[in-house]
Prior knowledge:
- The chain has one helix at 2-20; strands at residues 30-36, 39-44, 51-64, 67-73, 77-83, 92-99.
- The protein is of the alpha+beta class.
- Strands 2-1-3-6-4-5 form a 6-stranded antiparallel β-sheet, with no helix packed on it.
- The protein is globular, with a radius of gyration of 20 Å.
- The termini are far apart.
- 19% of the residues are buried.
Amino acid sequence: MKSLGRTLVAAGAAAVLCAGFPLNAHAAEGLLFYTSEYGAIVLENPTDGLCYSVGNAQDPQNSTDRVATFYSAKRCGGTATRLKPGEEGFLTFASVRFTR
């Protein structure tokens, strides 16, 4: 019985240690093209789940392998519009997030 208890404690400790380490950040592969007040912009291999504030941007072309969600406000707030990989949109946005 002591052996089973030790095994369970060791397994629990291993689970806690593994959960404490961050997972590798995954990135969308490809490019996002859009226009800002500074001209044409390209975002290369953006990180999944990270909210990118881009100022006053428009006309995105999602050439990544992820779904891009464009938001009307900073910090991924406001109205959301999704573009699948390979799609482009005629919209104005202030932030974007990529997801699988």
